[in-house]
Amino acid sequence: MWDWHYAWSILPGLIASLGTAFSATFWGFIIACLGGLVLAGASRSRITAVRLASRGFVQFVRNTPLLVQLFFLYYSLPMVTGIAPSAFLTGIVGLGLHFSTYMSEVYRAGIDAVPKGQWEAAKALNFNGRQTWITVVLPQAIPPMIPVMGNYLIIIFKETPVLSAITLVETLLTAKNMTSASFRFFEPYTLVGILFLLICLAMSLLLRVVEIRYNRFTTGGKKESRKPAERRTNDKSANPVANREVYPG
Amino acid sequence: MHTPWNEFVPLLWEGLLVTLEVAIYSAAAILLSAAGGLCRVSASPAVQWLAKIYIGLFRGIPLLVLLIWVYFALPFAGVELPKVAAAVLAIGLNYGAFGSEIVRSAIQAVPPGQREAAVALNFTPAQRMIHIILPQALVRMLPPFGNLLIELVKATSLIYFITLSDLTYQAMILRNNFLPSTAQIFGLLLVIYFLLSTVISTGVGWLERRLTEGRV
Asked: Is residue A249 part of a domain?
């Protein structure tokens, strides 16, 4: 049932197809990060309409399947707007929009985790809004977000096979095309599974290394900082942003 | 352009039933996650490792790849499953792994003093788990399990790939029949999924309030 010869012959093609998956992941992640920032900003807006619109968008997109959103973007929008972007472009926009709603929660949690006293101190020092954000809030809000965002990078990578539904020739569709040429299903699909598993494991190992490095950097070499609330350890439960989201798939 | 909304209803209704069928069977993954989570905090290192391997394996493989593997590749290994069984197996294994982590973290989040108090009161390990730790962990598990359930319903749209006639599949058929109404069909589909998720989150919210009544 397992033909090594055939498996070796298709492996280079499958590995090459990962390039599309990686670039879709990369661009999807960038769009998600930027979109998430916009959504997080909008949900803190002083204008009620903007706040409601942002929250409504987040709720709606989070509670509907990525696959259907992709179909909507790929098949419906061209009929409404008359513009038909490529499968790749639609795919990264779909991934980006879907995960921007998750990312906005990451930003929100990170910003909420900055102690209230920091805001008050900035006010007492007569900082304006921009100064408060750039010199006080964001430098404290961003470090705990890093591991969570890294997690979403892995999750986005794991969602790229869904893009095969809108005819983007990524790894899964490449494997499918191989099966229709050879009528052998076992090797291509098994190899795809193994490839994804290995890459996800490698990515999460890398993420742990980055996290440990970053924690060392942000605590300035000190083992323990003054207040327990500010303590950053490698233990994820100590991170106010981590463990807030579960996204399987 | 006139949209024949009433023509959409019968097919989408059939699709909804299939989606719900697969979602309800797959929710049995919760049992798998309970088992996985309990094994993960087991006293025996061997059992712990088994659970770790299960969780690591099925969290690293994308659900869609697993689903296609179970349905298209597994028959070549001599295991041929009907569509619904293949879908439930793939979704169940995948979500069971994520659920295991929820169960594990909820159990570990119970303050250690609770366990120590139970030891001091001479409870057996099983009594400790059933009477002291699980009731407290259960409350913590509910919100993440609610999210997981919503993700699960969203994930059932993937069974379209193995040509199970769920909501998404029926919408694709409708699209072929009423091509000019593509935007309306997919828009309606999004709204249906949104309503399903809303029903789940309302239900879980109600359950959470019921279980946390009188607790601090």
From this structure: no
Residue B76 to residue A186, Cβ atoms within 8 A: yes
pTM of the model: 0.88
Question: How many Å apart are CA A188 and CA A3, to the nearest integer?
Answer: 11
Whether residue B209 lies within 8 A of chain A, CB to CB, comes out as no
The tens digit of pLDDT for each residue in A218-232 reads: 655 444 444 444 334
Which residues does chain A have within 8 Å of residue B72's beta carbon, measured at their own beta carbons? 179, 185, 189
pLDDT of A244: 45
Q: Do B157 and A161 touch (CB under 8 A)?
A: no
Length of chain B: 216
Distance from CA of A225 to the nearest CA of B (A): 23
CATH class of the B15-212 domain in this structure: mainly alpha
Supply the ipTM of this predicted assembly.
Answer: 0.91
What backbone torsions phi and psi does residue B142 show, to the nearest 5 degrees? Answer: -55, -55
Contacts of A69 (CB under 8 A, 6+ apart): A61, A94, A97, A98, B190
Domain count, chain A: 1
pLDDT in tens, B121-171: 999 999 999 999 999 998 889 989 999 999 999 999 999 999 999 999 999
